[in-house]
Amino acid sequence: MSASGGTKAIVAALVANLAIAAAKFVAFAFSGSSSMLAESVHSLADSGNQALLLVGGKKAKREATPQHPFGYGRERYIYAFLVSIVLFSVGGMFAIYEGYEKLKHPHDIEHWYWPVGVLIFAIIAESFSFRTAIKESNVLRGRKSWTEFVRHAKAPELPVVLLEDLGALVGLILALLGVSLALITGDSVWDGIGTICIGVLLVLIALVLAAETKSLLLGEAAGLEETQKIETALVDGDTVTRVIHMRTLHLGPEELLVAAKIAVQHEDTAADIAHAIDAAESRIREAVPIARVIYLEPDIYSETEAAKGPDAEAAPGGPGSASGH
After folding, report:
1. Can you give the pTM of this predicted structure?
2. Distance CA 271, CA 267 (A)
3. What is the C-alpha to C-alpha distance for residues 310 and 289, in angstroms, rounded to an integer?
4. What is the pLDDT of residue 325?
5. How far, in Å, CA of 176 to CA of 194, rounded?
6. Which of its termini does the chain have fewer beta carbons within 10 Å around, N or C?
7. Do 91 and 175 form a contact (C-beta atoms < 8 A)?
């Protein structure tokens, strides 16, 4: 993900949510609607989440240190995971609690035009933010479906903003529906039901974000396309004859570690092998620019060792898993 694209989507969402949160709190103060209070806290939590993403992006740019020799790229994953926690607790659980309280102690909505007017304004503003996130994501999404994009994106910011904006829009519609039904029927229980629905929606989105970000924190391999490019770049057909086995790991969204055992000719000299490794590293970086940390180990390929099985450690000269991650 380009830094500018992600930042543009985050800033657009932050500005929209701050304006919407202020309007919602005013509407809640005049109407007493629990849906409006839940939506106010939701927008406030979203604003905090976008601030967290911006902080994570800034911290991730720090230079590597002796204590952290691979840099701070994963800071972006950590702050994205914090977003899921905030969304779950401050957004989802608060809304469920507030909805329960409204069902237990119902009270009429006052000055109905405040919540209705603010919700319509919020839907319009949130739509612009969602449109920006979709536009920025389309640059990177390519032919992937939206589900594939969210599940396999290595940069967490755009998937987070996309899901937050989607949840916000659906939540606003639920709030408008709850308030409208409460006004039409004269029964404020509908306002409470709408609030609980908003809470459940936010909890589900938070769980999805947590699961996807957890996978990134644990360490994900390069995608299939990048893996194939690296394997192709490694083999020159002269000194490097094959990839015995390879591992890749994202140190951050835009930094990839590559570790591979490569087969070289038996008669090659140390100088030949060293030159071949340098050339292979150059080809990898040209094919996949984010492959910035590369470790290559030369070995002599052995059919006998390869026959022992796919375990690269049990059979150091065997094929292992050429694309295992």
Report:
1. 0.76
2. 12
3. 29
4. 31
5. 8
6. C
7. no
CA gap 30, 184 in Å, rounded: 19
Q: pLDDT-derived band of residue 287, with 50, 70 and 90 as boundaries?
A: very high
**Mean pLDDT value of segment 44-66:** 88
Share of the chain above pLDDT 70, in %: 91
What whole-number distance in Å separates Cα of residue 1 and Cα of residue 292? Answer: 16
| Structure-token pair, residue 227 | 């893996």
**Summary mean pLDDT of the chain:** 84
- Report whether pLDDT(121) > 80: yes
Minimum mean pLDDT among 19-23, 82-86, 165-169, 307-311: which range? 307-311
List residues bridging with 248 in a β-sheet: 258
Looking at the predicted structure, is the pLDDT value of residue 318 above 80? no
- Per residue, what are the HEC states of the chain? CCHHHHHHHHHHHHHHHHHHHHHHHHHHHHHCCHHHHHHHHHHHHHHHHHHHHHHHHHHCCCCCCCCCCCCCCCHHHHHHHHHHHHHHHHHHHHHHHHHHHHHHCCCCCCCCHHHHHHHHHHHHHHHHHHHHHHHHHHHHHCCCCHHHHHHHCCCCHHHHHHHHHHHHHHHHHHHHHHHHHHHHHCCCHHHHHHHHHHHHHHHHHHHHHHHHHHHHHHCCCCCHHHHHHHHHHHCCCCCEEEEEEEEEEEEECCEEEEEEEEEECCCCCHHHHHHHHHHHHHHHHHHCCCEEEEEEEEECCCHHHHCCCCCCCCCCCCCCCCCCC
The pLDDT tens digits for 144-161 are 898 888 888 888 888 888
Q: What gap in Å lies between CA 123 and CA 317, rounded to an integer?
A: 61
* CA–CA distances in Å: residue 1 to residues 139, 174, 259, 288: 9, 32, 23, 14
User: What is the rounded distance in angstroms from the CA atom of residue 35 to the CA atom of residue 186?
Assistant: 15
Q: What does the block give as tokens for 195? A: 């609030």
The β-bridge relationship of strands 255-264 and 240-252 is antiparallel
Yes or no: say if 169 and 123 are a contact pair by the CB < 8 Å rule.
Answer: yes
